[in-house]
Amino acid sequence: MLNFLWTRRIMPPTDAQKERTPLLERRLGVWRVLIAADESSSFRLPNLQWGIISTHIPLLTRGYKDIHSISPMLFWLMVVTHLWYAIEDPLSLYFSNRLLLLIQRSVLQGKVHTSLDRDLCMAIIARASCSAFSGFVQWTSNNVQDQYCMLVNYRLQERLLRANLARDLETSQDNEAHLTTDPELVFRCLVRLLDLGKEIISFLLQLRLLLHLLGSEFASAGPVSILLCFLPLLLENMWDNQLWSKAYVKQAINGDYLRQEALTLLTDHTYKAEVMGGNLSSYLLEEYQRVHDALSHIPNGDVETLWRRSTTALPNMFFNLCNDGPVLYIGLLALMNPSQVSVVQLAMLEQTATRLRYTFAFARHIITLWPSELASVKNFYRLLDLKNKMKDGCMPYSPAAGALGVSLEVRNVSFNYPGAKSERDALKDVSFSIKAGQLVVIVGANGSGKSTILKLLTRCYDATSGTVLVDGNPIEDYQIADLRSVTASLTQEHTIFPLSLSENIGIGSPSSATNLDKITQAAKLAGAQDVIENFTNGYDTVLEPVKTASLSYTGRGNEVLEKEYEKMEKSTNVSGGEKQRLVASRTFMRMLSEDIKFVIVDEPSSALDPGGEYELFKQLREARKGRTMIFVTHRFGHLTKFADLILCMKGGTVVETGTHQELLNHQGEYAHLYNVQAQAFT
Ligand SMILES: Nc1ncnc2c1ncn2[C@@H]1O[C@H](COP(=O)(O)OP(=O)(O)OP(=O)(O)O)[C@@H](O)[C@H]1O
């Protein structure tokens, strides 16, 4: 085992990085752990980089302003309850100590003494009232905080949703748009700062109480006792030997372990069909056994546990002894001079010191966790503030009533995808024009730029150079939402949403999303009605429900519960062709609206049978009145013969334009592609 536990120091590689912290590399079983070793001081008062608070003041202020504006009343209620919590511990300690002292006096006097009895009664009432009031505040605060957290969570989530929905395609592909955040963590982080304030106040008040106790009750043992009380706190910081409180990165580097993980992954349903088809079960089991044997002596558990196991028991023993330091010391004093110390005094000291240590430990815990929670707040606001790369235009787009469709012109357009790794432009100096109401078909080999043209025409991206004109005006001048409101699209990338089938279709035209007549009509046009009617729940079927059900550990084995669980949120598979018909229904739903003036269809029929494909294209063609339609397809038969214009593409440029007959006569790229397909039928 020792072979798998070692440590070495990694220095930053270059001079320029000298000021950066060196890393400690530690091998723990199958893991390689890199730890940021802060050598500046081995002793750190609670290891919060205090600067982190000051540098984030604007962010925190914004956060507090936001949660305050959501409900000022709940906000202040939360602050007040935190204030109460700050004084609750010292106050209850004070009352407890006072009660203990009075009990001791009363026991020692052993007879009725009116003024002492009255004091004792008052102390009992004070202690009881403090406990009862605390319970009440706790109950109120839990309710307030839960309610407030829910409200804040909902509002912040809504803002995030809004920001995500408003993001354009290019910006949403940036790493910045994939930052992880959780509105609940945003709230928790801000509350944590209040918790920290509360713990600090509480700590100071308790410290004051302890000093008072040591001053009055244990004057002789004072200085040593104070030192002993604080020794564990100081030592804990010096020997902060928990991995979780350090900045580290871990990675499994043992080849057998990685292989074991990969083999386990192969049992996942994603690979099921191939594993079954290839009869791989025995092979996988044998391989698993082999890597398991190789791994039998190498620990592969949780790194934090392995880290703890790799140290000796001495620190634990030492800390435990330190914790008992004050009591042990006063015990020794009592041994030497029994009259100097009473049991009650000992109990008071023990109680106060323990509570103080607990407060300190809790503050330390907050301080350790807080920076990671702060990251969530930062990410949340970075996502809210993320600016779209594509500028929206100012001009409204409203085609005249009875317009034939949208007219389009592409002038010397070149385009490369942002961040593309290829040297070649996706489009290179492309020019063509489409009249309003024309049916256009774009053909060409894979990767020739057909889909890219559609993405520019629907303003998913802006051209790198050149211009796209819509009804004679640059596309960038129009308001994007207006252009989208007159466009319907159907592409191979469209999917089924985790909603009911009726909503999946209805959402094509949000204003009629619940109009069942239109939904049925759209499903009929796309040839999806039979598919839907086959489901027991028809249009209410949810093919891929959101998964929330889980069976408790003790529920496993309970047949009735297991049966119920099986029924919940079951996914239903449909064939590729059926899925395409369902998705196409959404586009037909959209096209039922007169507002749609531009339709783009990008290879939506790859999984459809020939009959289905013919019907789909026929229905789409029949819906073309008053619309410009552009199809991208690899299949020539059903569409190209009807096209007013065919654009034939190759290597990112339009190499030929014309009608089917013109291009066949031309005997160029189009004729070549057409003949390759036609040969299969001759
Ligand atoms: N998101 C993207 N990022 C980077 N490059 C892309 C992206 N999408 C497409 N490309 C590249 O742009 C070029 C044109 O792709 P496009 O999808 O327009 O081809 P296509 O003619 O529609 O192909 P297919 O017939 O296979 O659908 C290809 O070289 C492709 O690799």
Automatic annotation (TrEMBL):
<dbReference type="InterPro" id="IPR003593">
    <property type="entry name" value="AAA+_ATPase"/>
</dbReference>
<keyword id="KW-0067">ATP-binding</keyword>
<feature type="domain" description="ABC transporter">
    <location>
        <begin position="408"/>
        <end position="676"/>
    </location>
</feature>
<dbReference type="InterPro" id="IPR027417">
    <property type="entry name" value="P-loop_NTPase"/>
</dbReference>
<dbReference type="GO" id="GO:0016887">
    <property type="term" value="F:ATP hydrolysis activity"/>
</dbReference>
<dbReference type="GO" id="GO:0005524">
    <property type="term" value="F:ATP binding"/>
</dbReference>
<protein>
    <submittedName>
        <fullName>P-loop containing nucleoside triphosphate hydrolase protein</fullName>
    </submittedName>
</protein>
<dbReference type="InterPro" id="IPR003439">
    <property type="entry name" value="ABC_transporter-like_ATP-bd"/>
</dbReference>
<dbReference type="InterPro" id="IPR039421">
    <property type="entry name" value="Type_1_exporter"/>
</dbReference>
<keyword id="KW-0378">Hydrolase</keyword>
<keyword id="KW-0547">Nucleotide-binding</keyword>
<dbReference type="Pfam" id="PF00005">
    <property type="entry name" value="ABC_tran"/>
</dbReference>
<dbReference type="GO" id="GO:0034040">
    <property type="term" value="F:ATPase-coupled lipid transmembrane transporter activity"/>
</dbReference>
